[in-house]
Specification:
The protein is mainly α. The chain folds into two domains: 39-107; 111-163. The protein contains eight helices and no strands. Helix 3 (60-73) packs antiparallel against helix 4. The N and C termini lie far apart (91 Å). The relative contact order is 0.07.
């Protein structure tokens, strides 16, 4: 009888001391999630201001100035990739191709939603810059899915400029 009581007491103690493992991850702190969303909202507004200056007002130089401030405030923010793509697009609209290429060179394009389009663009810019080996890598990715759409045709044209 004493052994049964002791065993029950040990099991009760262990149950209180260590809750059973859960298959679900612990719930994040709602206040921390809210703070993170607020920071993301401020970062998104900053990027949107630059894009608005470019798209609505047509002022690429002012947009680049706003982007520079954004990049200082959020050097590796949640929207870092979007910021680099925006920088490249604005620079292209200003015919500043070498700078646009530098912005695209800083990115891994593989898993981006616009990966094929951005690979075409970067491949074209690399070919223009005489960086044909790198251009071939980008453009081969584009051509691996299809050669007959507009991006495939652009990729073929860019490849034809490389010896």
């Amino acid at each position: 009888m004493g052994i049964g009581f002791a065993t029950a007491a040990v099991f009760a103690f262990l149950a209180e001391a260590s809750p059973p493992p859960s298959s679900e991850p612990p719930c994040p702190d709602p206040a921390a999630v809210e703070a993170q969303l607020a920071r993301l909202g401020v970062e998104a507004r900053s990027l949107a201001d630059a894009l608005e200056r470019w798209r609505r007002d047509g002022n690429g130089e002012a947009a680049l100035t706003l982007l520079a401030g954004h990049e200082r405030r959020y050097p590796r923010g949640a929207l870092w990739v979007e910021t680099r793509v925006a920088r490249a697009e604005i620079l292209l609209s200003l015919s500043r191709n070498p700078e646009a290429l530098a912005a695209l060179d800083s990115l891994s394009l593989a898993n981006l939603p616009r990966a094929r389009e951005l690979s075409t663009l970067r491949g074209e810019l690399r070919a223009q810059a005489g960086r044909c080996a790198e251009a071939r890598v980008d453009l081969a990715r584009v051509l691996s899915s299809t050669e007959t759409d507009e991006l495939g045709k652009r990729a073929r044209r860019a490849l034809s400029s490389c010896p």
